[in-house]
Amino acid sequence: MLKVAVIGCGYWGTHVLRNFNNSPLWELAWMSDTDETQIAKARKNYPKAKTTKDYQDILNDEDIDAVAIATPVDSHFQIAKDTLLAGKHVWVEKPLTSTLAEAEELARIAKEKNLLLNVDHTFIYTPAVQKIKEIIKSGELGDVLYFDSVRINLGLFQHDINVIWDLAPHDLSILAYCTNKKAVSVNATGSCVIEYSGKKIENLAYVTINFEDESIAHFHVNWLSPVKIRKIIIGGSKKMLVFDDMENSEKIKLYDAGVSVTEKEDIYESLVQYRLGDMSSPALSNKEALAWEVEHFAESIKSGKATLTDENMGVEVVRILEAANKSLLENGKLIQL
Amino acid sequence: MLKVAVIGCGYWGTHVLRNFNNSPLWELAWMSDTDETQIAKARKNYPKAKTTKDYQDILNDEDIDAVAIATPVDSHFQIAKDTLLAGKHVWVEKPLTSTLAEAEELARIAKEKNLLLNVDHTFIYTPAVQKIKEIIKSGELGDVLYFDSVRINLGLFQHDINVIWDLAPHDLSILAYCTNKKAVSVNATGSCVIEYSGKKIENLAYVTINFEDESIAHFHVNWLSPVKIRKIIIGGSKKMLVFDDMENSEKIKLYDAGVSVTEKEDIYESLVQYRLGDMSSPALSNKEALAWEVEHFAESIKSGKATLTDENMGVEVVRILEAANKSLLENGKLIQL
Amino acid sequence: MLKVAVIGCGYWGTHVLRNFNNSPLWELAWMSDTDETQIAKARKNYPKAKTTKDYQDILNDEDIDAVAIATPVDSHFQIAKDTLLAGKHVWVEKPLTSTLAEAEELARIAKEKNLLLNVDHTFIYTPAVQKIKEIIKSGELGDVLYFDSVRINLGLFQHDINVIWDLAPHDLSILAYCTNKKAVSVNATGSCVIEYSGKKIENLAYVTINFEDESIAHFHVNWLSPVKIRKIIIGGSKKMLVFDDMENSEKIKLYDAGVSVTEKEDIYESLVQYRLGDMSSPALSNKEALAWEVEHFAESIKSGKATLTDENMGVEVVRILEAANKSLLENGKLIQL
Amino acid sequence: MLKVAVIGCGYWGTHVLRNFNNSPLWELAWMSDTDETQIAKARKNYPKAKTTKDYQDILNDEDIDAVAIATPVDSHFQIAKDTLLAGKHVWVEKPLTSTLAEAEELARIAKEKNLLLNVDHTFIYTPAVQKIKEIIKSGELGDVLYFDSVRINLGLFQHDINVIWDLAPHDLSILAYCTNKKAVSVNATGSCVIEYSGKKIENLAYVTINFEDESIAHFHVNWLSPVKIRKIIIGGSKKMLVFDDMENSEKIKLYDAGVSVTEKEDIYESLVQYRLGDMSSPALSNKEALAWEVEHFAESIKSGKATLTDENMGVEVVRILEAANKSLLENGKLIQL
After folding, report:
1. Tens of pLDDT, residue by residue, chain D (337 residues)
2. Closest Cα of chain C to A91: distance in Å?
3. Partner A contacted by B156 (CB < 8 A)
4. Crossing angle of helices A73-85/A100-113, nearest 10°?
5. D72 in reach of chain B (CB within 8 A)
6. What string of DSSP letters covers A156-209?
7. Do A216 and B193 touch (CB under 8 A)?
8. Residues 263-282 of B with CB under 8 A from D
9. Is residue D336 less than 8 Å (CB to CB) from chain A?
10. Is B154 touching C (CB cutoff 8 A)?
């Protein structure tokens, strides 16, 4: 059984704690937080694990195989770097770091030290995203022409990162995992329509990603929508796919919609028409994403192979986030990647 | 009874013909088309109206009060100009013209000649848009913070105009009518992911409009979506509104969603939270938009007052379309209006 | 070209008139109504057809091949009988008659005279019902275990017939056409929760139909629902089908849901579990039902074959309606057919 | 702090255990099950509580204030009776017992001994049902004309009780709680379309309940539906309410739909028409039902007042279940209550 320590026992940390604790492959050995209250709560639920306010205690423990970092984004770099230098595998919440330079440095260290650096892009481990990857890989969609995502709801306002850094990592990881497209440039627009805590933090934003071919991706991320929408449309040259994560069942629908040329009698109408055919919706398993990711992390450590959400994905996501943020500050200007 | 001539008897022209013919305020006197087949069809349905291939015959008829132009966009300018110079009121399909310069010239002529120049932005006459205008005007939403529209489906590909010129006029007219915001700049991205007829005509696009205050509008227009979505979200400082035109009933939903400050025990969560309250959905009348517009056009001619969709709206819509197109060609660059 | 007369030019009559008039196989020769206003309206739309208040004028016209009867239900019997005795084919609105005895007499006369007696169960001619029939016939569903229909909305209250006679004919015809089950008995409950016009006419009702095997059908019909629901669920031993007529697309969904035996660790849970697999939704044609029925009626007259909705279906529907009504009056008592 | 014992640690028992354990008002003192495996699992989660296979150990413990019974239905009577005779308050899963006679005997004993007998009709404690009760009580709906519930999905087959005993208790308790109507008779139809375990246990059923006035209730319960529906429509003389428990938000919609008399020009149309007005959807709290019920049970014990789901509701539900079952066996015959 591998031994893990969890640093950061806040909102998402509780999910990480629970899943490592429930796994037969892991022993939850340490828990750390800078806040005494969080430590107290964690201790009540997992009385067998040791606790500390100073994560150096964990790094000094030779028995620890891996450390899971669920702290605010701007602390990821230092803690992850210290952990890797202490020779331990890292599981870190998304996004990997606050800057591309930091992300690249962590990736370099992980490779040098031959350690795993798993970024917790949990969505990749959902049955829905696994199915989408499988469908695209099989060629059923044909070429991916566009990827459009809407991820909006009435959410908590983050006070350290804007809505792009908060929500877009989900879409960026899904995009990277499901398609093998090379992003070449980014545009982003958005606004801070509600100001709070004295800072200008964008509450809603629109990001366009341009690829080498003419294909395109677009994300709408928004903390201020009265309706919760989690919908991705992937247009392919053969079929089209809609992933609606708010559906209880039928989350994925696959449409047989191909181009066909039609002669119309009315000269004002076009000669090209899309044809809509049968739709199908594959059954999905009930596997919990985080539970599988925890298991996969353990197996990857044992086999020495990278996880599905390794440092390369983590770096790529931060690269686009940083460029999108730059574009946002420069009024939507095209930023080369 | 006023006398009207209809030029252009194609797809949309048949709706215009039917509504002028059904109206007790109008006599359908002339019908014109460059295509004999269209004329023959029109004659079968409206045997009493005269027909011609040359619209000059209509302009020469002193009895004609108004001319409705339902031809392809790039012919609007010449026909509308000739009609105004012949001293007749004009009803023209949207968008008003292909260029801002042309739109402004038509507007100038109409004002000089004291003639009505009604642009058929039909949506303005729907019970739903009338209700939205009423709600915003009453102050119930508070300040409009953002306007987000998705207008996508698997549609006919136009071969003369791209998807922005085809679909965005709907949203631009609704935006202009319902809010009194002054647009200052535009960004647009998009792509021609399906090529046809040897030309590069964008099939999908994203347009951001920036206003003087920090508020923002965004349109997603797309001919290539397997699902048909016609959804506008308007975020206000007091309430938020969703207009879903695909709903049979409950097209408009109004959410009582105001900002509230909450103290959370977990330091990783924000202090600012939006609160979602009651929702209400107003009943809408069954009035047909085009029938009302035809009636309103007649009454405006009699009273000498501008229509709800006059040349000012027509020019403003073309101004933004032209700027959006420019931004599209310059990789999303911010274009000042 | 066959010649048709239409008797009854009210609400549904206008649809019948339009479709016969549009058909290249029919000449609309006569129109009749007891109400002058209706005749005047019909004459305006179809100036070439002759009109009369007395349908005997039509029966005396030797050129007439068929008569379409779109009058109130209790007048169907006499008009249809007179028409058949005059040697003309009959198209009659549903339900065929007000009593089983009348329905059987009409059926007998039609057979004796070798004339077609088409009952306008329009639903049978919709692409959706044609597809359902095809799916069931192919064996894809397996045995039909149950048929459950909900057909409710806030509708006009009929003042001559109750909600069962008004709405259940749709479901009864679909049931009869799509399955070949032999109904053996009926139960019905319901109530007149809103009284009007001094009569007790049930506004909502529930009908159960029992078949020879253990399978069962149930209809919920209701004029008083704030939401419009038109949903039929057909449970099969292999697959299950949902027909939701309120959907714009995806009207039919086919679920791969078969029985499977599962061993559960918890003794309080059952050993039998249903498994839900993939779903698919076939594309449907856009053919208009009434247009096709009018064409099919003409072709059936020419070929001498029965229509899909002949007197046998008409009689079977009335048989069950009469029995359901009897059960309703006897507090839900089982009525043998 | 009150002391509780839980008998039956299976599927639903785990929820009961968790909620009593989490409550600051309760100490979870004992856990019992006839199955060693269940006891072992429970002990792992709640190591401080004592365990036993023989519930007499619990009844002999003078410190125990209340016993929660989460065993199969046919064991409820004996365990609950023993518990009451031992002088302890009872919480028992729904339905209260398998027969009306048993239910009435338990109610009598509870009253004699002045002990609480809470039947766990959890739905009563949901924010949605609390809101429905509040709306009806306020008179906003006017008189309740009908209550229609559909509660269907592809569920586990119970092997001891049929679908009416499994699912209808939810609707019966909601009906009883929200309206104060006196049921006078019952009809039920249904079928065992899938046989298993050698017994005939109905998988789908339809129950009609008749009230003293002309109003009516109807339940469709079904283990064999490919789609999960949990929808209750309550028609009132002033407004109508739809409760859709599958909605994430907007679970309750209230329609302003009143009767109005309309003169129609077409004689074939009725003179009475329902009018559909505005709709509103109240915000609901996030309170967890079972947590509140556990708290309410403790407070009721302290105050000596009955719970919202006391023996009277428990008896009434069983009375109708027994009558419905009788009707089912007698082919839908009306059974007086």
Report:
1. 999 999 999 988 999 999 999 999 999 999 999 999 999 989 888 888 999 999 999 999 999 999 999 999 999 999 999 999 999 999 999 999 999 999 999 999 999 999 999 999 999 999 999 999 999 999 999 999 999 999 999 877 777 899 999 999 999 999 999 998 889 999 999 999 887 767 789 999 999 999 998 899 999 999 999 999 999 999 998 999 999 999 988 999 999 976 554 545 444 444 455 567 899 999 998 889 999 999 999 999 999 999 999 999 999 999 999 999 999 999 999 999 9
2. 34
3. yes
4. 20
5. no
6. BPPSSS-HHHHHHHHHHHHHHHH----EEEEEEEEE--S-BTTB---SEEEEEE
7. yes
8. 276-282
9. no
10. no
Tell me the pTM. Answer: 0.93
Which B residues in the span 221-240 are in contact with C, Cβ-Cβ below 8 Å?
228
Q: What chains are in contact with C, requiring at least 3 Cβ pairs below 8 Å?
A: A, B, D
- ipTM of the prediction: 0.92
A331 touches chain D (CB under 8 A): no
Partner-chain contact A145 B224, CB within 8 Å:
yes
**Boundaries of every domain in chain A:** 2-123+289-305, 124-284+319-336
Can you tell me the distance from the alpha carbon of C225 to that of D252, in angstroms, rounded to the nearest whole number? 15
Q: Which residues of C touch D220 (CB under 8 A)?
A: 148, 218, 220
Burial class (CB in 10 A: 0-12, 13-18, 19+), C210: buried
Task: Give the separation between CA B287 and CA B289, rounded to whole angstroms.
Answer: 6
* Radius of gyration of the CA atoms of chain A, in A: 22
CATH number of D124-284+319-336: 3.30.360.10
Question: Across the beta sheet with A2-7, what order do the strands follow?
Answer: A50-52, A26-32, A2-7, A66-69, A89-93, A117-120
Q: Provide the H-helix boundaries in D60-152.
A: 73-85, 100-113, 127-137
* Contacts with A335 (C-beta within 8 Å, 6 or more apart), sequence order: A185, A186, A187, A323, A324, A326, A327
Token output for D280:
């509103």
Residues 197-216 of chain A whose Cβ lies under 8 A from any Cβ of chain B: 197, 204, 206, 208, 210, 214-216
Structure-model confidence comparison of residues C336 and B264, the more confident one = C336
The verdict on D154 touching A (C-beta cutoff 8 Å) is: no
Instruction: For residue range B49-76, list pLDDT tens digits in order.
Output: 999 999 999 999 999 999 999 999 999 9
- Using the Cβ of A185 and the Cβ atoms of chain B, whether some distance falls under 8 Å is answered with yes
Q: What is the CATH number of domain C2-123+289-305?
A: 3.40.50.720
Contact A276 C250 (CB under 8 A): no
Distance between alpha carbon B26 and the CA centroid of its chain, in Å?
Answer: 23
Tell me which DSSP letter residue C156 carries. Answer: B
State the Cα–Cα distance between residues A171 and A176, nearest whole angstrom. 8
